[in-house]
Design brief:
Structural class: mainly alpha
Strand content: under 5%
Pfam family, one: Imm3
Largest sheet: none
Order of helices and strands: H
Radius of gyration: 16 Å
């Protein structure tokens, strides 16, 4: 068995995870901005 299918699957997972972190960071910043305006 090839490790991670020549890393293609691993790269895809890593990209999805990075997108998830970026979205999460944006979400937290949006919430923080909301709190600052209250």
């Amino acid at each position: 068995m090839k490790y991670w299918g020549d890393n293609e699957l691993f790269e895809a997972i890593k990209e999805d995870y990075n997108d998830f972190l970026s979205l999460n960071r944006g979400y937290r910043e949006a919430i923080a901005a909301e709190w600052r305006t209250l």
